[in-house]
Amino acid sequence: MASVARSLTRLPVHTTPISSSFRFCASRHARFALPRQTFQSSSRRSYASGPSRGSSSLPYIAVAVALAGASGYYLYQANGSPRTLKENSSGGTRGVFTPTHEDYQKVYNDIAALLEEKDEYDDGSYGPVILRLAWHCSGTYDKATGTGGSNGATMRFAPEGDHGANAGLKAARDFLEPVKQKFPWISYSDLWTLAGVCAVQEMQGPQIPWRPGRADRDVSMCTPDGRLPDGAKDQSHLRAIFGRMGFDDREIVALSGAHALGRCHADRSGFEGPWTFSPTVVTNDYFKLLMDEKWKFRQWDGPKQYQDATSKSLMMLPTDMALVKDKAFKKHVERYAKDDQVFFSEFRDVLVKLFELGVPFQSKEDERMLLKPTT
């Protein structure tokens, strides 16, 4: 134990910023000071307050590593990036590992490989439900209190994981668990949002700039129910829910374009059916169908939803139809229906914003990375 502590005192405490040549401009968000995590276990995650100015955290890290047998603990430096002690063949430590762009690309590639390999989910792809996981873990953000958002991955715990809006997302969390086990240094918070990026790109959507820096939090940080959209409501509800996160009308419509993907399940939300004919490919078809198709109430025993008059196989929710009933929303539906590249560009920007809400990044916006699609 003493030798581990001695070797740790020689470890550098600085970090190297994530390297990326990509420069991307987006709206800056308020940054909230959250407790800095000194170390975390792959099997149990908790927060510890950072050391006071002028003091050294290395003795505490040494004790933690010695207790853990010099393995399994992850260090979070000032920039929020994970660092893990590496082991040599004899089990001794041989330095500190700071993930690079290449390491995150490896995580991305493994997620993409699983998406290709596992085709037993809806319509042959886990992609839509993976994006929904990333969306829902991020969409709990409240700009007034600085709570919620992707930083924390608190959907791992009840009651948040059991919220009605999160029904069915255990499938997505379980899908990603083998990736977490293979790359234990990545936080669930970073993994889920990176997986959302991967899902969009592998389903032929735009490339989404992304950066790490999220830390997992404990059950005490679970958000209250009711922060995510309710498909049975109207435009005032949409503005209240998305406005709480800091989105305007244009961004609300752009984010709604995610409904080009996936389908509803009667045993989860109560609603049933896909929005489009290609639910595993990112397109602007959702907006085209809203504008061009005739929609009527579906006659069934379930909740109020709309059905296309032509094939009677597609559906829209009341919140979807609100986008064409409201004039301020409709003008953006028209823009996206006319030009898929406009939609792709604005969908990209708003996903970047969504996935970063409330995250206390130390890295800069121009340090976001682009992860290469495999398709």
Fill in the keyword field for this structure.
375 residues; four-stranded antiparallel beta sheet; 12 helices; single chain; 8% strand; disordered N terminus; alpha+beta; 37% helix
Task: Summarize the helices and strands and which ones pair or pack.
Elements: H1 2-8, E1 39-41, H2 58-67, E2 73-76, E3 82-87, E4 93-97, H3 101-117, H4 127-138, H5 170-182, H6 188-202, H7 235-245, H8 249-256, E5 263-264, E6 273-274, H9 285-292, E7 295-297, E8 306-308, E9 315-316, H10 318-325, H11 327-338, H12 340-356
Antiparallel strand pairs: 1-2, 2-3, 3-4, 5-6, 7-8, 8-9
Helix pairs in contact: 1-2, 3-6, 4-6, 5-6, 8-11, 9-11, 10-11, 11-12
In short:
With 375 residues, the chain is of the alpha+beta class.
State Rg: 22 Å
Strand order of the biggest β-sheet: 1-2-3-4
Which blocks of ≥5 consecutive residues have pLDDT under 50? 1-74, 76-80
Name the structural class. Answer: alpha+beta
**Helix content, binned percent:** 25-40%
Element string (H = helix, E = strand): HEHEEEHHHHHHEEHEEEHHH
Distance between the termini: 48 Å
Strand content: 5-15%
How many strands, what sense, and barrel or not for the largest sheet? 4 strands, antiparallel
Secondary structure tally, helices: 12
**How many beta-strand elements?**
9
Shape: globular
Q: Averaged pLDDT, please? A: 83
Describe this structure in words.
This protein has 375 residues and is of the alpha+beta class. The chain is built from twelve helices and nine strands. It has helices spanning 2-8, 58-67, 101-117, 127-138, 170-182, 188-202, 235-245, 249-256, 285-292, 318-325, 327-338, 340-356, and strands spanning 39-41, 73-76, 82-87, 93-97, 263-264, 273-274, 295-297, 306-308, 315-316. Strand 8 (306-308) and strand 9 form a beta hairpin. The N and C termini lie far apart (48 Å).
